[in-house]
Design a protein that fits this description.
Largest sheet: none
Strand content: under 5%
Structural class: mainly alpha
Radius of gyration: 18 Å
Number of helices: 3
Mean pLDDT: 81
Number of strands: 0
């Protein structure tokens, strides 16, 4: 398992997340996390584009 977690730890974390957010919010959270990670990967691939646009704003 990633991060050195066993199946028992993953099960406990899943139950806690389900209790805190509820079953209706979990798909929305997954979608938002996916969009965030996708944007982060794109920024890592093209760091010069962002840096040059930030310098233009100064």
């Amino acid at each position: 398992m990633p991060f050195g977690l066993g199946w028992a730890e993953v099960a406990v974390i899943s139950v806690v997340v389900l209790l805190v957010f509820g079953p209706k919010k979990i798909p929305e959270l997954g979608s938002a996390l996916g969009k965030t990670l996708r944007g982060f990967k794109e920024e890592l691939k093209n760091p010069q584009d962002t840096a040059s646009s930030e310098q233009d704003n100064l």
